[in-house]
Design goal:
Keywords: Membrane, Transmembrane, Transmembrane helix. One of its GO terms (cellular component) is endomembrane system. It is a multi-pass membrane protein. The protein has one domain. Helix content is 73%, strand content 0%. The protein contains seven helices and no strands. Helix 2 packs across helix 5 and helix 3 packs antiparallel against helix 4.
């Protein structure tokens, strides 16, 4: 397994990630905790700098996913598979958790596991993310964003 997505898939099978997936279930029912998670993930993604190819695309797509979670939480968007939503929230939890497989304070390597997990999620759930993007663009066109 050499691609970023393959490495992310491997991380998604890790016991720590499975623990975060179970935590995601409890968080989704608490708008304050969702808001805190989204704020923390946003800060981490916007402050991260990387020369890795595709980082900007991954970052943009994860930002879209964060808008999806916000829309889901406030009830304006519900057209998503629950498993996809939980796995995505678990990815965000992994990104913001200081204790992960490779600590983030290690230059380049510390963010590589986060990046690979995000790449796996984007690849595996592209259809859900594209469906939300279409919905989001329609809402913007109607002035409901």
């Amino acid at each position: 397994m050499s691609t970023l997505t393959d490495k992310g898939f491997t991380l998604s099978k890790n016991i720590f990630f499975k623990f975060l997936t179970s935590k995601a279930t409890g968080i989704l029912g608490k708008p304050f905790k969702v808001g805190l998670l989204l704020t923390t993930a946003y800060e981490k993604l916007t402050s991260a700098s990387s020369n890795e190819s595709g980082f900007a695309q991954i970052k943009g797509t994860m930002m879209r996913f964060m808008r999806l979670v916000k829309a889901y939480t406030n009830g304006t968007y519900r057209d998503i598979n629950t498993k996809s939503l939980l796995l995505g929230v678990a990815v965000l939890l992994y990104v913001v958790t200081p204790l992960d497989i490779v600590p983030d304070f290690i230059p380049i390597l510390g963010f590589a596991d986060d990046l690979s997990l995000m790449a796996w999620f984007i690849s595996a759930f592209q259809e859900e993310l594209q469906k939300f993007q279409v919905w989001e663009q329609g809402a913007e066109a109607l002035g409901h964003s």
